[in-house]
Amino acid sequence: MAVGRRFGATRRTTTALLAGTIGVLAPLSVALPVWAQTAPADGYYATPPPVDDSKLIPDERKPDKTYKQSKGCVQRAVLGQNIVLKNRPWGQEYLQIAKAQDIVKAATGSAGGGIRVAVIDTGVTPHPWLKDRLVSGGEYVSTPKNAAPGLEDCDGHGTEVAGIIAGKPDDPEVGFVGVAPDSTIVSYRQLSENYEPDTTPPSSSSPPASSSGTPSSSTNPPAGSESSLPPSGGGGGSEGDETSPGQTNSGRQLEKAGTAGTLKTLAEIIHGIAQRREASVINMSVDNCRTATGSITEGEQQVQAAVHFAASQNIVVIAAAGNATDTCPQNDQPDSRKPKTIVTPPWFADDVLSVGAIDSTGSVAPFSVHGPWVGVAAPGTQIISLDPAEGSAGLANLTFESGDKASEIQGTSFAAPYVAGLAALVRAKYPNLDAKQVVNRIKETAQHPAAPGGRDTFVGAGVIDPVAALTQSLPSEVGVVASDPGPQMAQLPPADDRSSTPMIVALAGTGGGLVALLITLFVMRTIRRNRPETTGSAR
Questions:
Q1: Cβ distance 180 to 425 under 8 Å?
Q2: Which of 157, 271, 308, 448 is catalytic?
Q3: Looking at 59, 70, 121, 127, which residue is catalytic?
Q4: What is the pLDDT of residues 364-406, one digit of tens each?
Q5: How many other C-beta atoms can be found within 10 angstroms of the C-beta atom of residue 404?
Q6: Claim: this prediction has a pTM higher than 0.85
Q7: Which helix (H) or strand (E) element contains residue 120?
Q8: Contacts (Cβ under 8 Å, ≥6 apart) of 210
């Protein structure tokens, strides 16, 4: 009976030791990185699948559907005030645009002269400060009534985007100026929230609403309310020439219900620009936002193939990173490798330089969509640009939300053209650089965030630095691999000349080994003490 008790004690002791050891080691066995535990098997989240060149579609140079105008175009509101915006917008000062332009002018004689920038947007209204540097690219919404293809902007969005790139005021009192004011804008009207698919039979379809008809609540202030609204700004225009721009702060979404614009026509335009060599820089302040599902749609594949082709044809492709809205949730999940929201074209970061937005404090704008595909960042709040109303000769600094709520113009839509303008300046000063080198120059000279590798999912490689992009000598351009950028460390004396980390690791390892040895000796001693005495042979 005593022998049985001793064996039982031995088993209990051994079991307790094994349980304790397992308890200590178990956490180590599952200490895998978060991304390794949650990354999808198919990989179509942060990283899209390989390019399918069979999805490259021809440019038919026309709308893919029949659209009808459903809202009035942007108009001037008679407000009885006139504001001349004398100061430079904060974004111009922050980026030292004037200094960057002087650098290029000294080298080439102009600020972007000879560089053509394609603006794929809601169209661009002719404006005196674009002069003859605005040309027709194509029409993919509806035939304009009194303008060339692509040169009617019913929404007011594309005109303001074009102004940030190439606006050139002739009024010395105006501080605003485009980033590359001597460059040429090639305009393509590809989408509009003032048009909708025409689903009525041809025999009963009504003519589209006139651009001078009753304004919609989403594009103009309601009738009779103009005098109660603040002005949207002006400059160079006569009293009462202020405008209520037609875009909203949510940006321009492709394939949004009840609007014009699809991924298919976007892919066609990009392909056509590259085939016909119509521009060396493309700006797309338009996006398609959807829930990440681990798959890719046919329209996305078409855009992916198109931007890949354009990049291969030496074109710099730039896109807005997207604005977070109720229908486009922010990527605020802990694992950046598995975003919950996919934004196209920024998703295709191998061929597209996508642009996030910062505010006047230098912080990331709260609406700027995060993602591992974000390339760089630029100013995207308190925007001033060309007044998009037909016949205007001034500026706009406000937009109207819900028809009667005046607010600032903001969004990644207006951060992207800062980078497109910079790309035009770089191409002008360094004509021998190919598109990939231009993008690398913009990224490598950006103000890198204090993050591993000098980049994060908020501003990518950092806020652009035009002066650095136009002056720095880059190792990568002379065949030398540049070191990974890192955060700037404070120049403080070290607390200790030697690091204690190796010693701590060594002592911890030694201590762990001694503990394991002691446990082993204790177990062996316990087993020996509890082993039953040898008895004589059985008879």
A1: yes
A2: 157
A3: 121
A4: 999 999 999 999 999 999 999 998 888 888 898 876 554 445 5
A5: 15
A6: no
A7: strand 116-121
A8: 72
